[in-house]
Design brief:
The protein is an alpha+beta fold. The chain has 2 helices and 10 strands; from the N terminus they run E-H-E-E-E-E-E-H-E-E-E-E. The longest helix has 18 residues.
Amino acid sequence: MNSSTADAATGSSTSETGGPSGSGSNRAAAVIYDDVIEMAAGATKASGTAGWTYEDGSAWDPAAPDIVFNPSPCPGPSGSSEQLFMQFELLGPAPADPLAARKQMQAYLEEQGFRITRSIDPPESSNPKRTFIVSAESPDGAMIDYGANSSEQLLGLRSECSDHPSLTGEVGPETP
């Protein structure tokens, strides 16, 4: 099994929803796990490419996810109840046209109701890897970061925050 530990210091943005820096929810771990896997499956499908892998090189199969999360605390005001979130990354094959791939992913995210929080089309002088980026947040606070360059595609996914007790410990496909 792959494991992923969320890192609250990895670019969380200010939010008023349930995302890593938001107010959170009380949804159970199994529901959030399924949502994150569905979010990843939708984004990889929207990329139009096959062959996505986990960071360790093992194959990503949305029908049989092989990942266990160790939820980490969401950033927030001190003294607030502890809310947790899950995070992982996938790597995809190089797209034929990185700019077109970024535009395609942005259109998909907008169709799914995500709010675009960042879009970067770097100048041609930004070598060696000219990475086109789009970041977005869902209404419940989940976040996606997508990057495409001539070598690969990168997909970072973060769940909403939740204070449900089932998020304590490991969360995987068998979590009740």
